[in-house]
Amino acid sequence: MGVDAYKKTRVQRNVGRKVTSTNLYLKLLIKLYKFLARRTDSQFNVTILRRLQSTRTARYPISVSRLVKQINTAKDKTRTLVVVGTVTDDARLLTVPKLNVCALRFTETARKRILSAGGKTLTFDQLAQQNPTGTGTILLRGPKVREALKHFGRAAGLPGSHAKPYVSHTARKGKGAR
């Protein structure tokens, strides 16, 4: 199986997933990256397309401190960090170096801190115009193990449920007083 055949199967497999989001910007990005994945030989665009088509819970957030950690280990400090998800602020991080970050969303404080450090925050359409094949970029995603995932599943307290309740056990009515 050649590289072209491999790429075709990867792109065609993603075409079948119907995105149920009503976000028009997301739908336009999927159209754009579907085109780029088909017309360029870049595996970067195929990966971006697959991550754009994933569910919202699968687009994990990543903090600014992880981005800083990643850029500090990179050989070329001017590379653009690409995140298909949200970039969040980390109050524990005292100084943010100059970062070029492309993401679906930024929290207000994360965007402010990146821009005040002299960095750039890009959208995916801007990234596609600057480098359509993804050269000079580092593709990242947030950690899959998150506190929020512990609450998912069958309702807490039901038989067979392993979901963590949103209220602590000691706060249940009358139980803590005994």
Automatic annotation (TrEMBL):
PANTHER family: 60S RIBOSOMAL PROTEIN L18 (PTHR10934), LARGE RIBOSOMAL SUBUNIT PROTEIN EL18 (PTHR10934:SF2). GO terms for cellular component: cytosolic large ribosomal subunit. One of its GO terms (molecular function) is RNA binding. Keywords: Ribonucleoprotein, Ribosomal protein. Residues 156-178 are annotated as: Disordered. The keyword Ribonucleoprotein applies. Belongs to the eukaryotic ribosomal protein eL18 family. This is Large ribosomal subunit protein uL15/eL18 domain-containing protein. Pfam families: Ribosomal_L18 (PF17135). GO terms for biological process: translation. It comes from the Eukaryota. Residues 2-178 form the Large ribosomal subunit protein uL15/eL18 domain. InterPro entries: Ribosomal_eL18, Ribosomal_uL15/eL18. It comes from Paramecium sonneborni.
